[in-house]
Write a structure and sequence with these properties.
single chain; 191 residues; Arc Repressor Mutant, subunit A; 2 domains; 7 helices
Length: 191
């Protein structure tokens, strides 16, 4: 896509979940068109970026600031004519760096077990059992080394190994190894 043209269609159309597309704008791109591009990307990626930042900071306010900083940088870079090949990975990388730059890397166990993702259960016994399993999983994930948690979280968000490697600035093989180790540890611990 050249100059962000494919993103200028109506904002009621959702961008694909795996948004991997180049975005570039010329210096003469109208401000309202650029604003629309950034607004649509914000609507699509705000929640997953916020969850990722929350994983790192364990603080909602700091997480929101990191997300806002990422979109301000996106707007600034696009206005300056920068081409971004993979917007989703780029945004996650900017959020990651913003959090790291602030020195706030922490884990929040609730990040991987959200209530709206819980399966429907019918009886109080099943609800209790599900909550116990959820708690055990969250505790097991919390005990994982930070890099394994980060890799696992990004994989859960739908990132490919190559994209995770780009976000975390490491080799693809290292990402695969970290995810495999994390899954192995969780499997052994929850067995």
């Amino acid at each position: 896509m050249q100059n962000g043209d494919s993103l200028s269609h109506s904002s009621s159309q959702a961008l694909p979940a795996s948004a991997v597309f180049p975005v570039a704008t010329r210096a003469d791109t109208p401000a309202n068109s650029l604003q629309e591009i950034v607004t649509r990307l914000f609507e699509q990626f705000r929640e997953p970026l916020f969850r990722y930042a929350l994983l790192l900071t364990a603080n909602a306010g700091d997480s929101e600031e990191a997300v806002q900083e990422a979109f301000l940088k996106l707007h600034r870079d696009l206005r300056g004519g920068k081409e971004i090949d993979n917007v989703r990975a780029w945004l996650f990388r900017v959020v990651h760096n913003a959090v790291i730059d602030r020195g706030r890397s922490a884990w929040r166990s609730e990040a991987l077990s959200e209530d709206h993702l819980a399966p429907a259960v019918s009886s109080p016994e099943r609800i209790l059992l599900h909550k116990e399993q959820e708690t055990k999983l969250a505790q097991a994930v919390e005990r994982l080394p930070a890099i394994e948690r980060h890799c696992l979280f990004l994989r859960r968000e739908g990132f490919r190994y190559r994209e995770i490697a780009s976000v975390l600035d490491m080799g693809e093989t290292t990402v695969i190894d970290n995810i495999a180790r994390a899954i192995g540890r969780l499997h052994r611990e929850l067995r």
